[in-house]
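A quick aside before the break. I want you to see a complete sequence-to-structure record at least once, exactly as it would be stored in a machine-readable document. Don't worry about memorizing anything.
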Amino acid sequence: MSLLKVAIQSAGYEKKKEIIQNINFTIKKGELVGLIGPNGAGKSTTIKSLLGLMEFLDGEISYINDINYSYLPERPIFYDELTLWEHLDFVAAVEGLEEKVFKEKANTLLDKYKLSEHAHENPTKYSKGMQQKAMLVLAMITNPLLYIIDEPFMGLDPNAMKLFLESIEMERNRGAGILMSTHVLDTAEKICDRFLMIHDGHLVAKGTIEDIRRQCQLPNGSLYDCFHMLAEGAENEK
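That is the input. The structure line, written in tokens, reads:
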């Protein structure tokens, strides 16, 4: 079942000044799709298009009926005057979560990410790694059916990264779909079901790692090898 269907003909901040063109893909229940590309390729524009933040968009973005999704930005964002617990309480109120269920879920996540002792502190004062973990807790509190994640590994130490990977695997097993933008290609190759490779605003390849290897004619190539071959090929075609 497709949780999200994307058919973007073009999108940008102004009409006739498109940043991305011909971006088409789906996200299904329980799958993790990696959004891959260099800086400036159009990954952020693609994500902003999904979130309805682009001023100009020609195409169609369709979410399954009544889906709830969570967005994890590349850089953590918090309200200056709220503690982490108050952030969680605010999200619960907006989403209409039952108080007992909310508190049980919140305490479980805070304990799992070792943030229980800091729940009543202002997250703007946290370390970078703690802020990333706080954002994950806020994203997971509503049990979303779809995650849109932008560069999740920034600021995470190895233990926190392991915990994050275990968490998203648990969410996938629950049936959640995940679109994850990342530059960490070796990790992406190990955990993603499919890939979307964007270069210069265009989708230059998509599919499983086997699909990508066939397109590149690199039967034993790594995701890193394939990406650079496709990127160089796109540059040469200009």
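Two observations worth writing down. The first helix runs from residue 43 to 50. The chain has eight helices and nine strands. We'll return to this after the break.
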